[in-house]
Amino acid sequence: MMQVVPTVSPFAFAIDWTYRSTGSHAGADSGPGDPGRLPGLPDQSYIMCIMLKTKFSGSETKGDRCGTSNIQVETINTGVMVSGGDMVFEVEVKNLCPCTVRNVRLDGRGFASTVDVDPAVFHTDDGNFYLVNGGEPIASMATVSFRYAWDHFFEMTPKSLDVDGQC
Question: Are 88 and 140 members of one domain?
Fold first, then answer.
């Protein structure tokens, strides 16, 4: 059985190829006619890893300024349903920049909710754009979250931010 499992991180890309023999020769070498074995290899699992270092457009050092690519927005369906049948979603806005940022704005075109959203955490700034955390600082690796309810999730993408002070 061949199985490919890709794993992506900001620092590396890895592909694991796992071969697991289905033969019954328990460690003996097989001939080329055994479809469950790699010729010349014992009956066990093998892993080959390929690591490629990549640099993304986002900042990785404190000397560089941060941009919208350093803001991660994740929407999670909580599985909770409110009266009226709308699903509750939780939005987590995480600052991946090594610097503190403020005035984080998300593009949330069409956003609506049947439950109140704390305006200190998320409120409209200009119809389609929404200010996160009231424009207040969000520390490096910190997350600001809020919940809303609707019959579907809304895609939200970072639109703008300010780096707080020297970075």
Answer: yes
